[in-house]
Design a protein that fits this description.
By secondary structure, the protein is an alpha+beta fold. It is built from seven helices and 25 strands.
């Protein structure tokens, strides 16, 4: 066996590199290659997928590492190694393999004979708009993770598998809908160019969420929108993906005329949703008016659940429990419900809004 120099890295840094492999979706890119490129002070992982591309760097003096391995396999073998220092090297046995050694354990991946150009997004950007979030990138990640829960799960209307971004003066807005019964909207502050006119694009929800996670870190990121793609750069990482084409439908929501406003802790809604599923009470959760309170009621042959919150509504109503389950995934703060007869249910939490249109009764 011939062995080249071994380079020490932390297992946690290797896992960060492997985050780019999440773009290799099994149904599309199951055999996608991952390019590992070393320099005097870092090791970079480059991934080019069918719809999106990304790179991530980690500290290392892995100057001689320059190989291509399977993206899916690289991510899969990392949990097999103990935590801590990992020695990375390229060996021939007699064929070339990428070797990872840690505390008496070793895994090896066959090197793929394929050339991949490294990504260099920061050198190719000709931006139409650049945005840096003021709440650090974690704020945008949190908001997008929530919006992602409300996108369509079916490809019947592909535009609804994305999230619509509106970038305006010092503001980013997100809108998601399943195309059937539920609409989500939120806004957050950011820094933009002065006198910026609103720009609206639709990003593929899965890919863009993975891009935000790849660029995760303590520093701000730069979000750049071009004519046909969107780019993220920051924290030693970069990501770009194609925008979804097609027109985002105009979603008109009627005003909440003569609605009753009810405040409810998220924890109460979570328990009620869980009760419906545990009791096998069907697909609905009932809001029933009481003398001084509103009762959240779930009943079945197995048993029942009852919770009371202060407030008043004019008439009993039932709502889809799966949709309410998505709403209960918001942060652990109070929710404000606007409940009106023959109108969509409106739920608000700060700058977040959800409209649920398929009231059962």
């Amino acid at each position: 066996m011939t062995s080249r120099k071994r380079y020490e890295m932390q297992s946690s840094d290797l896992r960060r590199l492997a985050k780019v492999c999440d773009l290799a979706r099994i149904d599309i890119d199951s055999n996608a290659p991952l390019y590992l490129q070393g320099t005097e002070d870092s090791l970079a992982a480059h991934y080019r997928g069918s719809y999106s591309s990304a790179y991530r760097t980690a500290p290392s003096d892995a100057g001689e590492i320059d190989v291509v391995v399977g993206a899916k396999q690289f991510k899969a073998v990392l949990p097999l190694l103990p935590e801590g220092d990992v020695a990375v090297s390229v060996e021939t046995t007699p064929r070339r393999v990428l070797s990872l050694r840690a505390k008496g354990s070793r895994v090896a991946l066959a090197v793929i004979d394929q050339d991949i150009e490294p990504l260099s997004l920061s050198d190719t950007i000709t931006a139409e708009v650049q945005v840096t979030t003021t709440d650090r990138r974690a704020g945008l990640l949190e908001e997008f993770e929530l919006a992602n829960q409300f996108v369509a799960k079916s490809m019947a209307r592909p535009i609804f598998t994305g999230v619509r971004l509106t970038v305006a003066q010092d503001m980013i807005g997100l809108e998601a809908a399943d195309g059937i019964s539920i609409v989500y909207r939120s806004t957050m502050k950011c820094k933009t160019e002065k006198n910026l006119l609103p720009i609206r694009v639709v990003v593929p929800a899965y890919d863009f969420l993975m891009g935000l996670q790849i660029c995760d870190g303590p520093e701000d990121i730069l979000l750049t929108i071009e004519k046909s793609r969107i780019i993220l750069c920051g924290n030693g990482a970069g990501f770009d993906c194609a925008l979804l084409t097609g027109e985002w439908p105009k979603i008109s929501l009627p005003p909440q005329a003569q609605s009753r406003r009810v405040s409810m802790p998220v924890a109460v809604l979570k328990r009620a949703v869980a009760a419906v599923k545990v009791l096998e009470g069907g697909v609905e959760l009932k809001f029933v008016p009481g003398k001084k309170n509103i009762r959240l009621l779930a009943q079945s042959q197995v048993g029942g659940f009852l919770a009371e919150v202060p407030g008043y509504i004019d008439k009993a109503a039932s709502f889809d429990v799966d949709a309410l389950g998505l709403i209960s995934g918001m942060s652990d703060e109070s929710l404000t419900f606007d409940i009106a007869i023959d109108a969509p249910l409106h739920v608000q939490q700060g700058s977040r809004h959800v409209w649920l249109t398929n009231r059962i009764s």
